Amino acid sequence: MPKTMPEQHSLEDVLNTQQKKLAFFQNLVLLAAADSVLTQDESDFLVQIGDRLGLKPEEVMPIADNIGVLSFIVPAEGIQRTLELQTLVQMMLQDGQIDAREYGLCMEYAHRIGYGKAILDDMVSQLAGGPPNPNPNPPTVS
Length: 142
Prior knowledge:
Elements: H1 11-14, H2 18-32, H3 40-52, H4 57-65, H5 78-93, H6 100-112, H7 117-127
Helix pairs in contact: 2-3, 2-4, 2-5, 5-6, 5-7
């Protein structure tokens, strides 16, 4: 039976501290900026997420101002990691094309939370409206 992505947790439930919210938002901004172009769709998505999380412009401006020296912040909790990866993939899909630099950052994030390419590609397929991958490659131990 193919695994589906969990829907029972909302961003608001999982990101229950200001620190978690800002770290998550920073990851989104880094991905949005990866291809050096912030489209209107990407910008709207950032505003939408910022609003959902109750972040104020003065709280997120330091992230934009320091984008060149920031890196991904990987959360400790498993559900938060999965939820963040889903949202990063949604950000990557906002402009209707998968930029290699954006995909590379999603892949880096996926690897850092212990997921392989098959899981990432399955998530991309599902969030882009495609079917789940019926035969995801199981993780291998090296």
